[in-house]
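Let's practice the habit of predicting before peeking. Look at the sequence and jot down your guess about where helices and strands might fall. Then scroll down.
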Amino acid sequence: MLRRVLAAVAGLLPALLTAPAAQAAATCAEPAVRTYGPASVTGAIVGSAVHDGRAYVVTRGPKPPVLAELDLSTRKVIRSVTLPDGPATGEPEGGWGIAVSGGKVYVGTYPVPDLYSFDIATGEVRHLHSFGRNGGFVWSLAAAPDGTLYAGTYPGGRVFEYVPATGAVRDFGVLAQGERYARAVAADDEYVYAGLLDKAKLVRIDRTSGAVQQLAAAPTGVGVVTLHGDRVLAAAGGELIDVRKDGSDPRRVKLESGTLDALAVTGDGTVYATSRPDGAVHRYRTGDTALTRVADAPAPGDETRLIQPVGENALIGFAGSGGVWTLDPSTGASEFTDLLDAGLPPGTERPQSMLLVPNRAVYVGGHFSMEVRDLRTGDKRRFRLPGEPKDLVRRGDKIYAAMYPSGQIVSIDLRTDEVRGVGFLGHGQQRPWDIEYDPVTDKLLVASAPLGANLKGALSVVDPRTGAIDVYVDVIPDQSLMSLSLDAKRGVVYLGGDVLGGGGVPPVHTTASVAAFDLRSRKVLWQVDPVPGHRTFQDIKVHGDLLYAVYKRDSGTWTAMDLTTRKVVRQGTIAGYGELTVHRGRVFTSVFRGGGNAYLLGDEAKLLATGLGDEWYTNPQLHFVPGAWDAWALVGRDLARIRLDPACPPLTVPPAGN
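Done guessing? Here is the structure:
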């Protein structure tokens, strides 16, 4: 009997031993990727123009971008075309620069700085010229009275001339040493007027000789320029500059707070200006000592791409989120139309941020909007936001978003989708990169960078109950902050720097620093430079006694630093840069380049998946399901749930749609 039992056990032993392996193999063989369609759909716009009862708008984000024609009498899109790839420069994603002249609409695009024309009569679209390489912008476009076009560009900060009749191109050269952005242009018979962002100048270029004359120095970058009679009007932050075309008789008025983002002049010389984030409309005439607030625009918190007088007592405006409005400034009466409702073809965009609320929903931040997928029902919904949510964090029944370009922190109610402002970082900190919640102090922590020619970033400590914000500017001297990581038990937040700051000014350091900041004393405990010559952290994450980091410059370098000795104990190279996350006691990252890869970081980097694509607008993220190896992420521009089990072989993700 005993012999038969032993024989039976011996016969079962191979099956018992191979059962876990077989189970693991079956798990790894299950469908590893599920996609759920576009992660974020948008109607956001950039370039806008009005001509002969029609408006022309260019979408922002989708590839290829759409140029749409809107009948202003019916508020309906009556025609739309796409802007195809340039023959050698790549795919445009939008067009800031737009001008109408000679029966054609001209569009200057990004991130390829190309020029296109749209024939209003025939609908023909043509690629005309490229002003540079992939990674550039045509920020602004203006037509002179004779039809010659002038393009303000990035990153060279140059103005180019293009003659439609011949295709001749002229480069006016360096307008100010070190300038990157010719952000706004206007033109008359003799001159081109350009607003420079980094060097904060309003300049005039002689169209014949190319001579450059400074008309005004500004307190910050000049982002809007328009003309009326013998005067030039420009907006620089919250200041309106009013000067004669020869630089004489300068006048200035300033908002108490906020930024002027669009200007329009009526026939009698009345200037209307919109401001953000309050969404107000102001009036000014030469000789006034202040701007007069006359009404609230119907898109508070939005960016105004264009305002223009229509009729005797009306303004028309175009909101960056994808809307058109009219306003009677004498009464404040207004009407707003969402361009998607008007028939603008919706487009799939590159997402800004993502947040998983387990067993409830996935939130995806886009341009001026939030897309929500309900995990219980599969339904999707979308609501507006005042800008770009660069990062998201949850606190109780609210999500908090760090917004660009306002530097505002907003709350989003999980039950109602109500969006409310918490406060503005101020201090020039308009580019928040990272936000975390400290449950011990019940505070939000924000890492930020300035805009323009400024090196000094900040750590902000935000009280979500009161809106009080303590801003610690230059906490890492002469560096902006790209990332932070909280060690709540120790009451310390670790900060990752970037020596380039807002750009446009030479850095004073060659190596990005890590600093430890004590949240009780509000003091820096220590600062180190982990890897000499590496200038920018993309993300840092504390895990136990190690601080993991992924660098943006040099791209793909990752490290683990011992927090006791402050020495790098592990270092390697992966395909690119992205965000780090800790899940089930392990450190993961998803990165750009290499086709879009995910890794497990330990003694070395282990590739878990490739083929995710490079379609994040900010940085690739992974959001793991608690207790599982599944993570919410992107495949291309689609929302996806991906198995990233370290015990499984590396996963090759098929392209979205396959």
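How did you do? The longest helix spans residues 2-29.
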